[in-house]
Amino acid sequence: MKTNSITQFPYGTVILNKEKFVEVLSQVVSLSDLNSIKNRIFTLKDIITKDKKDQESILNIDANGDTISLRRDILVSELDQILKSQTLERAKYYLNRLIKGIQKVKTSKINDINLLRWKEYDDIITDSLWILDKRDNSGAHLAWYWGNFVPQIPRQMMLRYTKKGEWVLDTFVGSGTTLIECRRLGRNGIGIELNPQVAQKAKELIEREPNKYNVVSEVIVGDSRTIDIKQILDKFGINKIQLLIMHPPYHDIIKFSEDERDLSNAKSIEQFLKMFGDVVDNATPYLEKGRYFALVIGDKYSKGEWIPLGFYCMHEVLKRGYLLKSIIVKNFEDTRGKRSQKELWRYRALVGGFYIFKHEYIMLFKKQ
Ligand SMILES: C[S@@+](CC[C@H](N)C(=O)[O-])C[C@H]1O[C@@H](n2cnc3c(N)ncnc32)[C@H](O)[C@@H]1O
């Protein structure tokens, strides 16, 4: 393929002829005084921030070879770092790091994040407090299901804890949010849902999402406590999944059905925890060792008492030998709730001496 050394694409991406760009940088790194390096980098930065015509005329490179796309703002900031270097050694260190990031890919065993270009992943959250201002309502994410979670949750989990082509199991798939995200990110997804009507609607929505990576999206109607997961995996010729996601009912806060096998119909907290534990027991053998289990859960109020459902569930998981990796606290985004309703709750909170629920948890475990 014949490519120009640098072509700018929209959204701040610069497409480079990899070999040529490395060659240019290597020439710069071989210079023996700081000022000459800075002069060359200054010109390069100018080229990268200018339009295509200028790039060709200044660099005058037309060559065959592989291309690489880089975030322009990050590349410019790396060049700026070189320009700000106080010593020759520092400048060369930054230059060599830039060259390495272009030439090589370094990922861990559990995701596709290229650690040599980690700065480009600023969409990946690494803090334990998530304040999301709005849900992602794009494409098939219609948010029609009362009690669904925001797509950002499975998305973040998959980006950090799976590679493309791996398998994700969601044992309370509801409206299919996880499986829609799986399609977007190129992960195979299996979802189990007790309510056949909900499962049917989820299937229809998932099918509306383009499947550009040609992944499997399988929604199965069943009770996650007892369903034969081995049989499901056998069908696809696999025996392990790489990420387990659970978003169970928060006990009886929302009643999902009349079915007594539904966790939202548990008669007590104890029964709820027993049912939840059964689902964990049923799924755990199929999660690959060293891989992650994300539990999304909130607390509840009952008869004037805060019930720490999230921590009770966490305890159930820990009893089963998992390692706790994080407790993420995520806000409830503002719903379109009426102002008068909000004021009423605020008044009640002041009278009753309690706080209004504004958060839920994403508890993250690693299978040992
Ligand atoms: C909190 S919702 C999950 C919502 C989902 N994350 C989404 O974005 O749509 C919990 C779901 O678990 C289902 N459920 C309850 N008990 C179940 C069981 N024993 N087996 C499988 N699914 C169950 C409910 O029908 C409900 O759809």
Structure write-up:
Helices cover 39% and strands 21% of the residues. The chain contains 12 helices and 15 strands. The strands form 4 sheets. An 8-stranded mixed beta sheet has the order 6-14-15-11-10-7-8-9, sandwiched between helices. The protein has a 3-stranded antiparallel beta sheet with strand order 2-3-5. α4 packs antiparallel against α5 and α6 (152-161) packs across α7. S-adenosylmethionine binds next to β8.
Average pLDDT reading = 91
Which sheet architecture does the biggest sheet show?
A: 8 strands, mixed
Number of DSSP helical runs: 12
Rg computed from alpha carbons, rounded to a whole number of angstroms: 25 Å
Notable traits:
368 residues, 12 helices, elongated, disordered N terminus, binds S-adenosylmethionine
SSE inventory with pairings:
Layout (H helix, E strand, L loop, with lengths): L1 E3 L1 E4 L3 E5 H12 L4 H16 L2 H8 L2 E3 L2 E5 H12 L4 H16 L25 E2 L21 H10 L5 E4 L6 H9 L2 E6 L2 H13 L8 E5 L7 H7 L5 E6 L22 H15 L3 E11 L2 E3 L2 E3 L1 H11 L3 E9 L7 H14 L6 E8 L2
Parallel strand pairs: 6-14, 7-8, 7-10, 8-9, 10-11
Antiparallel strand pairs: 1-4, 2-3, 3-5, 11-15, 12-13, 14-15
Helix pairs in contact: 1-5, 2-4, 4-5, 6-7, 10-11
Bound molecules: S-adenosylmethionine.
Concise overview:
This protein is 39% helix and 21% strand. It has 368 residues and is of the alpha/beta class.
